[in-house]
C-alpha cells in the first residue's frame, strides 16, 4: 500500500496558507504603485496598511481551515472532514470514483502544490465531488494514479510524465493559436477588461494627459483619429484573445490512459488535468462559431454523463476535448476518441423540407423589420438622404435573408449503425453524434406554425451532455420514423399509424 493510501488521517499541505496569502497580496503592488504615480502618497500608505491587515486576516482564516481539514483514504472509501464550529464529514466509496482532476494556479505552482478534485461521475452537486485544496504536486499525481487505477506510479514513471500504456490522441500545434483571433468571445473579454482598466485608472490617465491628447488628436483629424482608434482597438482585441488562448491551451495534450480513461492537460499560468472515463462517453459534439467555420475550424466537445457544468472565469468547460483546430483534425480526433474507424460527424446528412427555409426567412425578415422601420422614419424626418435609407434597408434585408439561408443549409440529420447525428445553428453551428444506446427518450414538439407547415422538432433525450439533442424542423413522418429506427420500440407503442 502506498504512503498516500494508508488509512490514516492527513492534513492538507501547510504551503496552502502561503499560496492564498500570496494571491491576496499580489495585486497590492501594482495598485499602490499607480497611486504613488498619481501623487497620492497618503492614500497609498493607508491602502497598503488596510491591504496588509486584510491579508493577515485571510491568512489566519486559511490557517484555521487548514488545521481543521483532514482527509483519509482507505481501501474502501475516500473521506474528508472539515470545519470547527460547523463540522462536515463527507465520504465517497472508492469504487464510485470516476475522475480525479488536478488544478494549480500561479500561486499553487510557486509553492509546488495542486488542488485535487475527486468526482463520482454523478450529476453536479454537493455530493458529487470532494476537493482537496491543496496538497503537494507529486503527492497529488500519486493520489490520482492510485484512485483511478489502483496503483501509484514509481518515481521514474512520474518523471517520464506518462505511463507506457498511455497513448496520445492529440497535441497542440502553435498555428492553432491563430484561430483565437476569430473567437469573438475572447475578443469581447479583452475589450471588457480594457474598459474596466480605463475606468479604474481614470485619474492616473487624466493626470498623465492621455485624455487631453486623444481629444486634441480627434479635433485636429477626426477621420484619421477614428481610423487609428478602430485599428488599435482591433489589434488590442486580437492580441489579447491570442494571449488568453495561449494561457488556456499551452501544452495541450489529449491522451488515453489505462482502462480507456481520457485525460486533457493544458494551461500556461494555471495548469489543469481533467479526466473522463470512456464508459461515461455517449458521443461528441462539434461546435463551429461562424467566423471559425468560415476559416475551416471547429471545437470538439464530449457528450458524457456526470461532467460538472460549473465553469471558471474565462476558461473552457470540462467537456472541451480539443481547442479550435482545423475541421479535418477535429474529425480525426472525434473518431479516435470514439474508437471508430471513421468519424460519425462526417456522415452525409439528409436535408430538411423547404418549409424550414420559409420559417427561417420569416424569422429573419421579422428581425430586420425594426432596422428597416428606423431608416424609413429617419428618411421621412429628413435626417438622412433617401438613397442612404434605401441602401441601409436593402442591406438589412439581404443580411437577414443570408442568415436564413445559412441556417437552413446547416439543418440536417443522419443515422448510422451506432449513432444519431443532428446538426443546426448559424451563429454557432453544432453537429452532435449521439450514441443510439444512450438515448433514453424522445420529445416531440410542434408550434402552431410548425403544424401548418407539417414540421416538428424531434428531440432525443439522454443523461449526458446538455440532455436534449433536437432534430429541428423535420417533416413529421420522417422525424417519427427516424426516432423509431434509432431506438426501436421506444416511441413506436405511442404512435397511431394511418
Automatic annotation (TrEMBL):
<protein>
    <recommendedName>
        <fullName>YdbS-like PH domain-containing protein</fullName>
    </recommendedName>
</protein>
<keyword id="KW-0812">Transmembrane</keyword>
<feature type="transmembrane region" description="Helical">
    <location>
        <begin position="43"/>
        <end position="68"/>
    </location>
</feature>
<feature type="transmembrane region" description="Helical">
    <location>
        <begin position="361"/>
        <end position="381"/>
    </location>
</feature>
<feature type="transmembrane region" description="Helical">
    <location>
        <begin position="17"/>
        <end position="37"/>
    </location>
</feature>
<dbReference type="Pfam" id="PF03703">
    <property type="entry name" value="bPH_2"/>
</dbReference>
<feature type="domain" description="YdbS-like PH">
    <location>
        <begin position="66"/>
        <end position="146"/>
    </location>
</feature>
<feature type="transmembrane region" description="Helical">
    <location>
        <begin position="387"/>
        <end position="405"/>
    </location>
</feature>
<dbReference type="InterPro" id="IPR014529">
    <property type="entry name" value="UCP026631"/>
</dbReference>
<keyword id="KW-0472">Membrane</keyword>
<keyword id="KW-1133">Transmembrane helix</keyword>
<feature type="domain" description="YdbS-like PH">
    <location>
        <begin position="408"/>
        <end position="484"/>
    </location>
</feature>
<feature type="transmembrane region" description="Helical">
    <location>
        <begin position="176"/>
        <end position="201"/>
    </location>
</feature>
<dbReference type="InterPro" id="IPR005182">
    <property type="entry name" value="YdbS-like_PH"/>
</dbReference>
<feature type="transmembrane region" description="Helical">
    <location>
        <begin position="221"/>
        <end position="246"/>
    </location>
</feature>
Amino acid at each position: 500500500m502506498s504512503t498516500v493510501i494508508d488509512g490514516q488521517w492527513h492534513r492538507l499541505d501547510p504551503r496552502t496558507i502561503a499560496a492564498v496569502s500570496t494571491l491576496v497580496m499580489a495585486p497590492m503592488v501594482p495598485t499602490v504603485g499607480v497611486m504613488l504615480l498619481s501623487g497620492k502618497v497618503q492614500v497609498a500608505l493607508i491602502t497598503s496598511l488596510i491591504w496588509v491587515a486584510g491579508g493577515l486576516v485571510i491568512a489566519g482564516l486559511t490557517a484555521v481551515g487548514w488545521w481543521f481539514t483532514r482527509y483519509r483514504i482507505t481501501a474502501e472509501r475516500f473521506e474528508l472532514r472539515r470545519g470547527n464550529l460547523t463540522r462536515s464529514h463527507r465520504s465517497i466509496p472508492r469504487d464510485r470514483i470516476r475522475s480525479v482532476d488536478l488544478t494549480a494556479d500561479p500561486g499553487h505552482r510557486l509553492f509546488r502544490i495542486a488542488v485535487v478534485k475527486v468526482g463520482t461521475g454523478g450529476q453536479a452537486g454537493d455530493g458529487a465531488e470532494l476537493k482537496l485544496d491543496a496538497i503537494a504536486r507529486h503527492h497529488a499525481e500519486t493520489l490520482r494514479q492510485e484512485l483511478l487505477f489502483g496503483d501509484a506510479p514509481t518515481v521514474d514513471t512520474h518523471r517520464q510524465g506518462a505511463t507506457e500504456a498511455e497513448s496520445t490522441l492529440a497535441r497542440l500545434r502553435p498555428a492553432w493559436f491563430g484561430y483565437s483571433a476569430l473567437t469573438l468571445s475572447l475578443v469581447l473579454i479583452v475589450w471588457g477588461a480594457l474598459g474596466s482598466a480605463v475606468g479604474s485608472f481614470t485619474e492616473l490617465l487624466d493626470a498623465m494627459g492621455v485624455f487631453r491628447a486623444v481629444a486634441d488628436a480627434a479635433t485636429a483629424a477626426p477621420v484619421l483619429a477614428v481610423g487609428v482608434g478602430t485599428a488599435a482597438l482591433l489589434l488590442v482585441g486580437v492580441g489579447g484573445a491570442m494571449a488568453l488562448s495561449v494561457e488556456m491551451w499551452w501544452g495541450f495534450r489529449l491522451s488515453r490512459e489505462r482502462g480507456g480513461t481520457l485525460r486533457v492537460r493544458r494551461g500556461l499560468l494555471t495548469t489543469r488535468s481533467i479526466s473522463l472515463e470512456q464508459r461515461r462517453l455517449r458521443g461528441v459534439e462539434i461546435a463551429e462559431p461562424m467566423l471559425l467555420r468560415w476559416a475551416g475550424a471547429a471545437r470538439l466537445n464530449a457528450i458524457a454523463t456526470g461532467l460538472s457544468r460549473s465553469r471558471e472565469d474565462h476558461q473552457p468547460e470540462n467537456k472541451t476535448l480539443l481547442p479550435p483546430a482545423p475541421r479535418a483534425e477535429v474529425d480525426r480526433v472525434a473518431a479516435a476518441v470514439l474508437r471508430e474507424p471513421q468519424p460519425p460527424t462526417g456522415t452525409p446528412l439528409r436535408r430538411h423540407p423547404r418549409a424550414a427555409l420559409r420559417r427561417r426567412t420569416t424569422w429573419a425578415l421579422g428581425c430586420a423589420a425594426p432596422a428597416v422601420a428606423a431608416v424609413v422614419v429617419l428618411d421621412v424626418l429628413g435626417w438622412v438622404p433617401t438613397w442612404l435609407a434605401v441602401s441601409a434597408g436593402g442591406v438589412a434585408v439581404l443580411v437577414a435573408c443570408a442568415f436564413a439561408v445559412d441556417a437552413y443549409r446547416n439543418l440536417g440529420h443522419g443515422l448510422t449503425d451506432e449513432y444519431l447525428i443532428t446538426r443546426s445553428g448559424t451563429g454557432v453551428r453544432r453537429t452532435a453524434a449521439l450514441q443510439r444506446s444512450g438515448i433514453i427518450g424522445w420529445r416531440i414538439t410542434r408550434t402552431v406554425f410548425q403544424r401548418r407547415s407539417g414540421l416538428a422538432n424531434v428531440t432525443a433525450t439522454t443523461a449526458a451532455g446538455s440532455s436534449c439533442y433536437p432534430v429541428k424542423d423535420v417533416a413529421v413522418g420522417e422525424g417519427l420514423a427516424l426516432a423509431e429506427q434509432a431506438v426501436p420500440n421506444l416511441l413506436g407503442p405511442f404512435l397511431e399509424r394511418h
